[in-house]
């Protein structure tokens, strides 16, 4: 499949990069067979709940797993949500619930402006504010809803990521926050290969560095 090839390319480059600069928490989803372990769009950071093909069209979380103790620490300020897009998607909604264990769609409120369409690649959203009354130690669940192809039909998909807010002073991770499409990778590959490597590495390195500031 077309996107599988471009995706492998992207994931390989990312894996190499994250390994090279030793991010504190390299994503295991970037290993071989990642295409079979997640939906068309998934959380790169914070990590989402275990993915199951038979559940990912069921809202609000695309998983039967209840919010558990496996939450990712999330900074109260300057947080970001990074997505991996394996296949083009449309009508993407990023929402949040401040409930301990949200089970209904009505438990979630909008976190970011609605996204009309997403091209395969990586996207990171960092323009949102957490309400003032949310404190360190509070928990929340991020929800991703989007429409993408499943067996030839365009259907809704869901994914959730469970988080715990921490003060920024205690947040030591660097969020892999950058935007790049698979197409950009392919275009660059068609150019001279030496230039490509430098360019791609430069773009990613810049983004990762920026995310660390
Ligand atoms: C918690 O999440 C991480 C990242 O997805 C995963 O590797 C680990 O197995 C999970 N642990 C449990 C107890 O579910
Ligand atoms: C990625 O693109 C989205 C949509 O254009 C934008 O809102 C976001 O700020 C971008 N993220 C970065 C890290 O530039």
What's a quick, concise take on this entry?
The protein is of the alpha+beta class. Helices cover 23% and strands 29% of the residues. Strands 2, 4, 5, 6, 8 and 9 form a six-stranded mixed β-sheet that branches. A four-stranded antiparallel β-sheet has the order 1-3-7-10.
Please explain how this structure is put together.
The protein has helices at 2-21, 182-190, 193-212, and strands spanning 41-45, 72-75, 81-85, 89-97, 109-110, 115-118, 121-125, 139-150, 153-166, 180-181. Helix 1 packs across helix 2 (182-190) and helix 2 runs antiparallel to helix 3. Strands 2, 4, 5, 6, 8 and 9 form a six-stranded mixed beta sheet that branches. Strands 1-3-7-10 form a four-stranded antiparallel beta sheet. A hairpin with a 2-residue loop joins strand 8 and strand 9 (153-166). Residues 1-13 and 15-35 have low confidence and may be disordered. The protein has two domains: 1-29 and 181-213; 33-178, Coagulation Factor XIII, Chain A, domain 1. The chain is built from three helices and ten strands. The longest helix is centred in the N-terminal third of the chain and has 20 residues, at 2-21. It is of the alpha+beta class. Bound molecules: 2-acetamido-2-deoxy-beta-D-glucopyranose (2 copies). One 2-acetamido-2-deoxy-beta-D-glucopyranose binds at residues 28, 47, 70.
